[in-house]
TrEMBL record:
The chain holds residues 1 to 234 of 316 of the full protein. One of its GO terms (molecular function) is ATP binding. It comes from the Bacteria. This is ABC-2 type transport system ATP-binding protein. Belongs to the ABC transporter superfamily. Keywords: ATP-binding, Nodulation, Nucleotide-binding, Transport. It comes from Sphingopyxis panaciterrulae. Residues 6-233 form the ABC transporter domain.
Length: 234
């Protein structure tokens, strides 16, 4: 029997008279890399937020890591929100340790792991740099590392590729693959099919508030017209 890290059924959200998310269901197999694709405004962020318990659904249910209460599995989940933000006065290493501490990781262990991650990604030169001095893309990499530093079982990344240059996009891909090898499940949203094709086992396409496709990347390749599959890169 397949084990699922995320089981969302019929998630629905209304905002001031319009339906932002319309009965969206997602089942993310444990240990997989899963992509949620769709254009701007499709409803991806709202769907992820409902799954994580940040936004209350108007209808539908979701279970994270087998649990109906997202708060009770908080320390086992890593989340990169769409709106990025770190304390500008913190150095990269502190920011990462701080994010880990918010999810229950020991501060010294967070600092130790931060150094390892940064070195592995070739980012050691910025480890003692303050966030306010960094480019947006570099700060995003720091926040990404911070969101997974506590070795979560489920990692949810909202548009993680947006705003990254090709070198950092490759670093992100490497991190995602490495986290999966460690045993984590990764769910990320994107509006670029090429990112999903390179990484994902399965994808769901959300457009105009509803799920329009769900399946493997190979099924998507066979079924979807070229103009849908190849939207321009960021
Ligand atoms: P993007 O890639 O642009 O972030 P998305 O697929 O993540 O798009 P959402 O952010 O979920 O889409 O937004 C879906 C729709 O709901 C959009 O039309 C958005 O403007 C609207 N929306 C989102 N949050 C709110 C809110 N708090 N109040 C009113 N409308 C909202």
């Amino acid at each position: 029997m397949t084990e699922y890290s995320v089981e969302a059924h019929g998630l629905t959200k209304y905002f001031e008279g319009f339906t932002a998310v319309d009965h969206v269901s997602l089942e993310v197999p444990a240990g997989s890399i899963y992509g949620v694709l769709g254009p701007n405004g499709a409803g991806k962020t709202t769907t992820l937020r409902m799954m994580l318990g940040i936004v209350d659904p108007d209808a539908g249910t979701s279970r994270l890591l087998g649990n109906h209460k997202p708060q009770s599995v908080r320390s086992r989940v890593g989340y990169l929100p769409e709106e990025r933000g770190l304390y500008p006065g913190m150095k990269a290493r502190e920011a990462i340790a701080f994010m880990g501490a918010l999810r229950g990781l020991d501060w010294a262990e967070g600092r130790r792991r931060a150094a390892i991650f940064m070195a592995e990604l070739g980012l050691e030169r910025v480890i003692d740099e303050k966030i306010r001095k960094m480019s947006k893309g570099m700060a995003q990499m720091v926040q990404l590392i911070g969101s997974i530093i506590h070795a979560p079982d489920l990692i949810v990344l909202d548009e993680p590729f947006s705003g990254l240059d090709p070198v950092n996009q490759e670093r992100l891909e490497m991190l995602v693959r490495r986290e999966r090898e460690r045993g984590a499940t990764i769910l990320f949203s994107t509006h670029v099919m090429a990112h999903a094709e390179r990484l994902c086992d399965r994808i769901a396409i959300i457009a105009r508030s509803a799920r329009r496709f769900e399946g493997t990347v190979d099924q998507a390749r066979a079924l979807l017209p070229m103009q849908v599959r190849y939207t321009p890169r960021d």
